[in-house]
Specification:
Elements (H helix, E strand, L loop, with lengths): L1 H20 L5 H18 L13 H18 L4 H11 L1 H15 L3 H26 L23 H17 L6 H22 L2 H18 L2 H19 L2 H9 L2 E3 L7 E3 H18 L10 H4 L19 H37 L4 H16 L12 H19 L4
Antiparallel strand pairs: 1-2
Helix pairs in contact: 1-2, 1-5, 1-6, 2-5, 3-4, 3-14, 5-16, 6-7, 6-8, 7-8, 7-15, 7-16, 8-9, 8-10, 9-10, 9-15, 12-14, 14-15, 15-16
Amino acid sequence: MKTIILNNYKLLTLFSIFTPFAIIIGSAVANFFLLLSIITFLFVDIKNYKYFYNKFDNFSKILALFFLYILVTSFFAENNFYSFKKAFFYLKFFFFFIAIKVCVEKNINFFDIFYKFFLPIFLIVLLDGLIQAAFTFNSIGIIRTSSRVSGFFGDEWILGTFVYHLSPIALLSVLFYKNISNLIKYIYFSLIICLSILTIYLSGERTIFFISTIYFVLVVSFIFSLKKKISILFFILFILSFISLSENFSARIFKSFNFTASLIDQKNYSTFTVYKDLYGTAYKMFLDKKLFGTGVQSFRIKCLDKKFNTNKFGCSTHPHNYYFQVLGENGIIGFLIFLSIILFLLKDFVFLFLKWLKNKKDYKNLGLMIILVNIIISFTPIVPTGNIYSSVSGLFIFFKLAIYFGLKLKKPD
């Protein structure tokens, strides 16, 4: 019986690997593997359904409260059918979080499987982006139509986002794989870090590039000794300096911070102005429904109303900031629950960092630091973000959270 359960966890691990990479094909395929992961989890062990309601750790309790809150309040929102439908389908990420968290905790071969399957696919995505940058077309013939590189994603500009969010998992798969020497691990770490930041730079995603630079500098400081840190940081700077000489690639990252208001007046507005308008709309939504907000994914509807719309750039599908989105769509109560999730993660980071200072050779603690820092940086309040209630953002957020908390609860082999 134990052998059957272990094999089923291996199958669940494989499905979890395919889920984020399925985004390359489309959100529908990624959602298919996500649901397949949840169903497989329920069939792994007949007792696993209990994890969905009475085996919560403290973080899962807060997360469950947030999901329950947005579901109930969206039912009473002005556009209740639309918001409730979005909140209901978003609930799948809570079940996915539980399934993958338990899988990491219970499956002793989790990271071995990730090393054999996840890591090669991740490296292929990186190399494919570099090929497209060098030859204007990628390994399957997708042509680069601008200075930005999109790789397998074609006309979707999310390659940099994809690499940033999955890079810590690639690093963990190497860190916890036991059948390679430390030298090989350091070579892999260097390769993943350098290729990741290079690919992100070439993708032209400004925000992701700047936060990933901070992230990888921190990761280098965690993993490598002083001499190796200096060598790798100089190597990264050399690569970026060399590429910045190319006008095509550097323009998007460092120079394109203006938006044209119209073809008639050719009046330019800074990036700051655009986001200020979007945040202003979200804040007006909050002022209108302070306690419970206007409902999940309601920004795209409410911003069309002159009552809420702020200036020329105050309307979009979402306000491009997690905090303003939750504040406007879920009110002060939802915002406080969301903030408690962030504070929980920050508390964990402080304890982990203190433990790391005492024992820098503890692999588990190092792995937790690598993924938690990535999660926390992606929640930086002042930077533009994606739509927190979208399938892509939800998948990245809860996939990483699941791996972090699964590893945290995992007992030594």
